[in-house]
Write a structure and sequence with these properties.
By secondary structure, the chain is mainly alpha-helical. The chain is 68% helix and 2% strand. The protein has 9 helices and 2 strands; from the N terminus they run αββαααααααα. Helix 3 packs across helix 5 (89-113) and helix 5 (89-113) runs antiparallel to helix 6 (119-131).
């Protein structure tokens, strides 16, 4: 008997409510924590620096949310709630978290859109598109090594499918990525459009 595919075992970004006030904070954080676990499936500490950054930024957003959950019920309101504060740690964490989520979203979109390409190529493309411009030469060098250590595509698919049919995995992954893509584009537009920072 097969297990459920990975994307059926964690909160999907497709299920995170988006209202006129914005992206619901607590369920977004839950979905983001599920994403961190995905890095474990890549094996051997691949992109450990990104995983650690995402974990730290989830923690920073969560700390701000827990400090005033009513004012921070959406991510957009969380950012707005910090405007008058000297310390805008939650906003900074959200910006970096959005970058990390965008990186993973693009890599997995490349993987789905081009089934003939190995995973390391998908992650390299995504890194160059999303994160490279924010990193020093030293971090870029580490990223180049990490990209080359990505597992083979078939091994990664086997890990995230948990024995379920690949068609089921592809359908669930597409739904998950669609939800994530909507959220990161919305956050990028809000953060940059309102002058809170650069994603």
């Amino acid at each position: 008997m097969s297990s459920q595919p990975y994307f059926e075992t964690v909160k999907s970004f497709a299920d995170v409510p988006i209202t006129v006030d914005g992206v619901e904070t607590s369920l977004f954080l839950e979905a983001s924590e599920g994403l961190v676990q995905l890095f474990d499936l890549l094996g051997s500490g691949v992109f450990g620096f990104v995983q650690n950054d995402i974990k730290g930024n989830i923690g920073g957003v969560r700390t701000r949310y827990q400090a005033d959950s009513s004012a921070c019920s959406t991510l957009e309101n969380l950012v707005r709630s910090e405007v008058s504060l000297d310390d805008r740690h939650g906003t900074g964490c959200l910006i970096r978290l959005t970058r990390g989520l965008t990186f993973l979203c693009r890599a997995l979109q490349h993987m789905q859109n081009d089934p003939s390409v190995e995973l390391h190529v998908c992650f390299k493309r995504s890194y160059d598109e999303v994160l490279r411009q924010h990193h020093t030469f030293f971090v870029r060098s580490l990223a180049a090594v990490a990209v080359r250590a990505a597992p083979y595509r078939r091994d990664f698919y086997s890990r995230i499918s948990q024995g379920a049919p690949l068609e089921k995995l592809d359908a669930e992954l597409a739904k998950w990525l669609s939800g994530l893509d909507v959220i990161v584009k919305r956050l990028k537009g809000f953060i940059e459009g309102e002058g809170y920072g650069r994603v």
